[in-house]
Amino acid sequence: MVIGWLQREREGGESHTSSAWARVEAAQRDVHLPCLLVPQPAHAVLAGELAACLLPARFGELPPEIKRAIQMHDTGWASSDAQQIQRLRGPYSGNAAPISFVAVSPGEAMEAWTDSIDSVEALTKTGAIIVSRHFSLLAQHDQAHHQQFIQAEKSRQQRLEGSTAKGGDTPKDGDLDRWTAALGFCDLVSLYLLSGLSREVEFPLAHPTSPRAQTAPRVTMRIQGRHVHFTPAAARAGCTLSIQALKHPVPAQGPRAETLTWEVR
Question: Three-class SS of residue 144?
C-alpha cells in the first residue's frame, strides 16, 4: 500500500539535498491520519500513464509491451493490499493505521515482487525481464534478506533472454538498460507525487537504485499545485496523470475517495 496525501507540508526534517527516494521513504514511514490509501497496482497504473507520455529523447521510444509492463509492474501486491483495505474498512477498525509498502516484511515484499513478474511474464517475456531487473535492483539494497530472490530472478532473466533469442527478437543490452531506467523513473515519480511532496527534486535518467544513477544526467521536477514541470522536458506537455485514492478513515459524510490529477506543463 502507498500512503498518500493531498498536500504534505511536513518536509521540514528533510534536507534539500535528500534524494527523491529518501523523501518518499520518510513520508511513507511518517504515517498520520487522515491520509489516502493507494493500492500498489493503482500506483503502477499511474507510472504507466507517465510512461505513455515520456519523450523519446530521455529513454528512447518505449515499445507498447514495455509501457504495458510498467503499468503492471506492481500487480503482485493486489492480494495483500485488498486484505489491508478490508482490515481498515472493517466495522471495528476505527482509526487503525495503514501499513506502507516500505514497512512490510522482506518475505511479503519478495512474494509480491515474484507474483508481479509472473503476471507480466504471462503477457510479455521482454516486459518480464524489465520488471525482474527492476525488483532485483531494489533487492540489492537488502541482500541479506533477498539473496534467494536475487538468484532466482537472475536465472529467470537468463531463461527469458534465451527464449526471446530463439524467437528471433532479442533485445539489446542497451535497450534493456533504457527500459529498466524508464520503469525506475516512472515508478519513483509516481511515488513522489502520491506522497504529497512538493519540494523541487532531481531524478536520474537511470534506474534510481542502479550504480549508473550516481553519474547519470538528471531531470528536475517542480510541482506547482496540480501542475508538474520537468527540466529538461521529460514528458509531453499537456499530458494528464490521474488516480483515485481511498480516504482513511472513512469520512462521516461526503465521498469516500479522492481523484488526484496532475498536468504536465
Answer: helix
